[in-house]
Amino acid sequence: MREAAPLSETDTPLPDPAITGVAEHAKDVVLRLEHVSLRYRVPTERVPTFKEYAIRRLQGRLQWRESWALRDVNLTVRRGEVLGVIGRNGAGKSSLLRLVAGVLRPTSGRVWLKGWPVSPLLEIGAGFHPDLTGRENVYLNATLLGHSKKTIDARFDDITEFSELSEVMNAPLRTYSTGMMMRLGFAVATAWNPTILLVDEVLAVGDETFQRKCIARINSFRERAVSVLLVSHDLAQVRAICSRAIWLDAGAIRSAGPPDEVAERYHRALAG
Amino acid sequence: MGMSVAGGTQALATSSEQIYDSARRGIPLWHELLEVIRYRDLIAQLVARDVRMRYKRSVLGIAWTMLSPLLMMVVLSLVFARVFRVDTPHYPVYLLSALLLWTFFAQSTTAAMTQLIWGGPLLTRIYVPKAAFVIASIGTGLVNLALALIPLAVIMVATGVPLTPALLWLPLPVLLTACFALGVGLLLSTLAVFFRDIVEMYQVILTAWYFLTPIIYPVSAVPAEDLWWMSLNPAYYLVAAFREPIWAGQAPGIEALGIGAAMSVVTLLAGWVVFSWRADAMSARL
C-alpha cells in the first residue's frame, strides 16, 4: 500500500481511510476505490499456440508489453447513487466494472464494497442455454451469479412474475423471442435486492419498450437506494438517469460531477 | 441524495450485506477452495445442465451412453480373442471394465478444458470461482460412469462372471480416479486458457496414453523389462484397482490402491496449486 495521499479533487473528498478505517467512515458508502491502478501484461505479439510459445521461449524471443488500463483512480459511491461512466473505447470503463465485479484485482490500490456479490446486468442470453427450459435457465443463471439454490427457490415466483413468463417457464429457451429472453435476464439480475448493480452498455441493445422498462426499473432502484454503475456511450441516457458521472480518459478520471457538466465537458473534448 | 433516503435505507440494508475487499485475501489455493464450497450449488447446476443436455437432445442419449462402450467392447473382443488369440479368461469383462474407467478419465478431463473456454465470455463479466467448472466436468463424468455400469453388469451376467461382494470396493478406485482426473483437468485447463491448441494436443497424448496403459491387452503380455517404466503411469494402478473387483471378484491389491492413491493425491494438489495460482491471470486472458 502506498502512503495515504490526498484524494484527487475529482471525487468527493472523504476522511482519510488510513485514519478512520474503511468500514467506519460514512455509513452510506457502498463502494470505494482507493488509488486503484490496473496493469495488463500482454505479449508484444500474440502467441496463441503452445507450440509457438515453447519455440519462442527457447529462442528467448518472448517480449511483454505493459499497459495500464487504470491509473490511480479514486472513487466513492454512496447508497442510492446512479453513477454514469463515460469515455472513449479503451479508456478503462470495462476494466473498472471488472474490478468492481471482482473478476480482476487491482495491480495496486484497493477496491472495497458492500453487498458482495454485485449484480451485473449481462447482455441478452449470456449465461443462458437455449436447450434448457426457462426454469432451468433461471437456476443456472442465478447460481452463476453466486446465489444458493435455497435463495432462488424463495425468489422464483418473483422472477416468474416480473418476467411475465409463467406460462412458458417449462419451455426450452430457444422457443423464446428476444424480448422474452431479455425479460428473463433482467428479472434474474434484479431479483436480489442488490446493493450495487452493474450495467455495461446493455441498454444500448433491445427495443425501445424494453429500454424504457429497464430505465424505469433503474429509477425504482434509486428510490430503493440501490446503487448503480452505468457504463454508456449514450450521453443523453447518462444525463437522464444518473445522479453523478465520471469521465474516464486513458485510465484516469478526467472529470467528475453532475452528469450534465461532465457530459458537456466530454462532448466538447470530443468535438475538438 | 437527501438524508431521508440514506436514513431510510439503513433498514433496507440488511446485515447480510457481505463486504468485498481486494486488499484482504488469503492464500490463493485456500481462497479458491472456500469459494468453490460457497458456489457448490452452481456445480450441481452445471452437472445437471450437462446431464440434461446429453439425454434430452436425443432419445438415444441414454442408450448411446450404454451402447457405445458395448460396441467398442464387441469389436475389440473379436479382434483380440480371434485375431491375436488373447487367452485372458473373461476377456470382454476384463476389457470393458478398464475401458469404462478410461472413458470416464478421458472425457471428463477433455470436458474440463472446453467447459472453462465455454464460460470464458461470462467469466470476464462476473466473478465465478473457475475451479467450479472443472469440478463440474468431473461430476458429469461420474454420472455417465455410473450409468455405464449397467451394461457392464449385463455383460458380466451374460458371460458368467460372478457378481461378488468385492464390488463394494469400487467406489474407492472411482474416487481416486476422480481426484486424478480433477488434478489433470485443472492443469490442462490452466494451459488451455492461454493456448487453445492444448485441446488438440491432448487428444494425441490421450491416444498414446491409452495404448501405454494395460486396457485392451493383459498385463501379462507386457515384457518384464518394460514393466518398470509402464508402472510410472498412474492410470496403470487406477485401472488395476478398478478392474480387480469386477473381473477377478477380489479386493483391489494394496499396491494398486496405495500407489494409485499417492499419485492421484499428488496430481490433485499440483493441479490445485497451479490453477489457483494462475486464476487471476486467467481472468485477464479469457
**Uncertain spans of chain A, ≥5 residues at pLDDT below 50?**
1-24
The sequence of SSEs of chain A as H and E is HEHEEHEEHHHEHEHEEH
Task: Give the DSSP E fraction of chain A (strand runs of 2 or more residues).
Answer: 25-35%
Radius of gyration of chain B: 23 Å
Q: Give the strand tally of chain A.
A: 9
- What does the average pLDDT of chain B come to? 86
Shape verdict of chain B: globular
* Number of extended strands of chain B: 1
Task: Name the structural class of chain A.
Answer: alpha/beta
For the report, how would you describe the main beta sheet of chain A?
6 strands, mixed
Distance between the termini of chain A: 38 Å
Largest sheet of chain B: none
- Helices of chain A, by number, come to 9
Chains forming the largest contact: A-B, 58 and 47 residues
Mean pLDDT metric of chain A: 82
Structural class of chain B: mainly alpha
Distance between the termini of chain B: 38 Å
- Please report which band the strand proportion of chain B falls in: under 5%, 5-15%, 15-25%, 25-35%, 35-45% or over 45%: under 5%
Radius of gyration of chain A from CA coordinates: 21 Å
Q: What percent of residues of chain B adopt helix (DSSP H or I)?
A: over 70%
Order of helices and strands of chain B: HEHHHHHHHHHH
What does this structure look like?
The complex is a heterodimer of chains A (272) and B (286). Chain A has helices at 17-20, 50-59, 93-101, 134-144, 149-163, 178-190, 208-223, 235-241, 259-271; strands at 29-43, 64-78, 82-86, 108-116, 119-121, 196-200, 227-231, 244-249, 252-257. Chain A is of the alpha/beta class and 272 residues long. Mean pLDDT of chain A is 82; it is low at 1-24. By secondary structure, chain B is mainly alpha-helical. Chain B is built from eleven helices and one strand, in the order αβαααααααααα. In chain B, helix 4 (61-83) packs across helix 5 (91-123) and helix 10 crosses helix 11. The radius of gyration of chain B is 23 Å and the shape is globular. Chain B starts with a helix and ends with a helix. The model of chain B is unreliable at 1-15 (pLDDT under 50). The interface between A and B is large, with 58 and 47 residues.
